[in-house]
Structure formats: C-alpha cells, structure tokens
Design goal:
The protein has a domain of 122 residues: 3-Layer(aba) Sandwich (Rossmann fold), CATH 3.40.50.2020. The protein is built from six helices and nine strands. By secondary structure, it is α/β, with parallel strands linked by helices. Helix 3 packs across helix 4. Helix 6 links the parallel strand 8 and strand 9. It starts with a helix and ends with a strand. Helix content is 34%, strand content 34%. The protein binds guanosine-5'-monophosphate (5GP). The site of guanosine-5'-monophosphate has 15 residues, from strand 2, strand 7 and helix 5.
C-alpha cells in the first residue's frame, strides 16, 4: 500500500467531539504507528525537497504542529520554531489575535525567532477554517519573514481554509 494510504488508515474519527455536531479527526493512531508516522514525514519531506529547497525554518503551531514539525525539520537539516498560544513563551514576544467561534485567541512567537527575509514553511496537524494558520502567517508577516507555504496532515475541504490562506499555498496529505 502507498504511504498516503498508510497515513489515511491511521486517522481516527470521532463524532460530536469536542461538542455536538463536530466530526473530530484524531491523529493519535498515526503517532502510535511508527510506519505510518514515518510515511507522513516522508511525504512532507518529499514535498519540501521538490518545491521548497530554499526553506530555512519549519514553523510549527501549538500544539499538534509540534508533533510533526521537529521530525520534518530534522530530516531537512534545518531548525524548528514554535508558534505558541499566548503566555507560554519567555522573553520579548510578538502576538496576533484571531477569532474563534466564541471569542478570540492569540498566538505568539519570540521576537527574535525569525529575521526579516528568512524563508519559512508552516506546519499544523489539521486545516479547518484556516484561522489558526492565518494568524501564524500574520506573525511571520509582522517579522518580515517570507512564508513559502503551509502544510497540514489533514485538510477539511468544506470549511474552505485554503481560500482563507490565499495567496499562501497549502499542502495536505489527506483531505476529507
Ligand atoms: P482552524 O483554525 O483552521 O479553524 O482550526 C485548525 C486548528 O484547530 C488546528 O490547530 C487543529 O489542531 C485544531 N482542530 C480543529 N478541528 C480539528 C480536528 O477535527 N482534529 C484535530 N486533530 N484538530 C482539529
């Protein structure tokens, strides 16, 4: 079976989590299976080497972007940068607020995490509305880093997160 099939087979699905009406996609089975996890990082690595050989950092989103980002960065021989939820990072930080279904949230990076002109790829586990990755792109723009693209394991197509992130490109391993 292909690497994609192996990844797809290890995504769980839970109706009505975390609340009624939401169909939650679970990456825990993927992390638990070494061959499937390796396949997912292989696919990201192939995509980056082919399309973005100039990338300088992988930027991962709190919290599940932290599970894939460092593995990929190691494969590529480059560094990993954390975008965290507000209040978790020491030192001077830069933040961007974004809308949630109810209220707002903020994401942050350390002020010196990226330098102007540095080329980065963003990674998270899942793209839904795109609000989270959009805020992270805003952070990169504030610091004048160059976003080469966004990557996720799973894209939920009907929420149109891809449109929200334009003109940035989104690469996903599996789409539902
Ligand atoms: P968005 O900002 O695109 O609407 O939501 C994406 C964020 O919410 C990601 O950080 C992701 O981890 C989380 N998320 C939303 N829905 C799901 C889901 O069904 N499964 C998982 N694993 N994460 C989700």
């Amino acid at each position: 079976q292909s690497k994609l099939q192996l990844v797809d087979k290890h995504i769980g699905v839970f109706p009505d989590f975390p609340k009624k009406g939401i169909l939650f996609r679970d990456i825990c089975p993927l992390l638990k299976d070494p061959a499937a996890l390796t396949a997912s990082i292989d696919l990201f690595e192939e995509h980056v080497k082919k399309n973005y050989p100039q990338v300088e950092f992988i930027v991962g989103l709190d919290a599940r972007g932290f599970l894939f980002g460092p593995l990929l960065a190691q494969r590529l021989g480059i560094g990993f940068i954390l975008v965290r939820k507000k209040g978790k990072l020491p030192g001077s930080t830069v933040s961007v607020a974004y809308e949630l279904e109810y209220g707002t949230a903020e994401v942050e990076i350390q002020e010196d995490a990226v330098a102007p002109g540095q080329k980065v790829l963003l990674i998270d586990d899942l793209l839904a509305t795109g609000g989270t990755l959009f805020a992270a792109c805003e952070l990169m723009r504030k610091q004048q880093a160059e976003v080469l693209g966004c990557m996720v394991v799973i894209e939920l197509k009907e929420l149109n997160g891809k449109d929200r992130l334009k003109p940035h490109s989104v690469f996903s391993l599996v789409r539902y």
